Every structure is written in C-alpha cells, then in structure tokens.
C-alpha cells in the first residue's frame, strides 16, 4: 500500500476515533441527515477555491470534503447498511465499466464519443436494473436552479433537441418576454411566476449556446453589484447620510459614476 493508501486508512481511523465511545461529543451525535448541509457547504467551498485558482485552498477544501464524505460513509457502516470498502469497490467497478475505451478493447476518438458511450453504458445499466433511463439523467433537484437549467439543456442537446446557434435563441427570448408582459397586464401571479421561470430557462440556454455558464456569470454579477452597492453606501455615509434618506435620483447618479470608474 502506497503513502496515499496509508493516509486514507489513517483518516478513516480518525473518523472511527471521533465516533468512538471516547470520541468527540459533537461527532458522535451526528447522523447522515444532520451532515447533509455540511456536504453542500464543503462542496461549494471546494468549488469556489477551484474557480479562483488557489491550489493551497483547493488542497485544504478537498481534504475537508473527503473527510466529511468518509464521516457519512462510516456512520452507514456503523449502522450495518454498507461498508466503506464496499462504497470504494462499487465506485472503482463503475468507473472501469464506464470507461471501456481505457480499461477494455474499445477505442474513443474524442470527448464527444466518450460522452455518447458513457450514455450508452448508463442506459444498459438502467435496463439491467429494470429502471427507466433518460438522456436527462438524474440531476439533483437541490442543485442551484440556473446550474440545473444549464445542465438539462446541455443533456437534451446530446440527442439534437437544441437550437442550432445562439442567434436562434434570441427570438425565443423575445417570445418569453412578451408572454411575461402579457401575464403582468393580466395580473395573474401564478402565470407571472411561470413566465419568469420560462424566461430564466431560455436565458440559461442562451448562455449555454454562447459557452457561458449562467450560474458563474450570475455569481460574478452579484459580486460586482454587492461591491458597487457597498461603495455607494460608504460614500453617502461619509457625508453623514444613510441610504434610506437619499433620493433615488442621487443614488442613480452615483451608481452611474461608479460604473464609469
């Protein structure tokens, strides 16, 4: 067993110690359900570190995520539902089975062909389990909605259910805008919500056709908005004024000035 294997075993022993009779009270009272929110948080911290290109933080955040995954898996092992070794074995078997062009006799020319074969293997697995298979897969509904919209559109496009170009999405965008405008005139709240959803989904698909991840684009816009808004707050506060006291016209004027900067 190499150093990585030894360290992995050591990490698992730390989990066992924390969960043991003389372990940490907090760790001992955790359940898979109580740790769900931390799985999401740690995954996003790793996601952000990778996106910002900070290797040292990526290393740390991936370690935190791995430890939490082991903690959840170990609790299932304690309950006798499955063993950590079984989880690792299943993962290894699945990766080998889904990469016949690497571990078997098949060959793949490019990434697109790999994706097609991946889908074919998943479809065969679903048939063997008597499960319904869809090109859309099983994207978790808890995924951020814009990211899920992006991924659903991406998966549908694999079978040709897509616009030929970004330019072809623009008329659909205008159609959805008009339908929202009509719903606003009617004042029907349920339809307004539905049309806003349709509009956002179309925007997500337009972003995909342009090679832009809408979730990432929106995050950058939010960071920009927050920074600019806080600067505006500080500016008026330095004048001894709170934003609630400032007329909208003055806020708009300063906002435009900050944009030019």
From TrEMBL:
Signal peptide: none annotated. Keywords: Coiled coil, Hydrolase. Gene3D superfamilies: MazG-like. Belongs to the nucleoside triphosphate pyrophosphohydrolase family. It comes from the Bacteria. GO terms for biological process: dATP catabolic process; dGTP catabolic process; dTTP catabolic process; dUTP catabolic process; response to stress; TTP catabolic process; UTP catabolic process. It catalyses: ATP + H2O = AMP + diphosphate + H(+). It comes from Thermosulfurimonas marina. It holds the Pfam family MazG. The keyword Lyase does not apply. The keyword Magnesium does not apply. Transmembrane segments: none annotated. Its EC number is 3.6.1.8. This is Nucleoside triphosphate pyrophosphohydrolase.
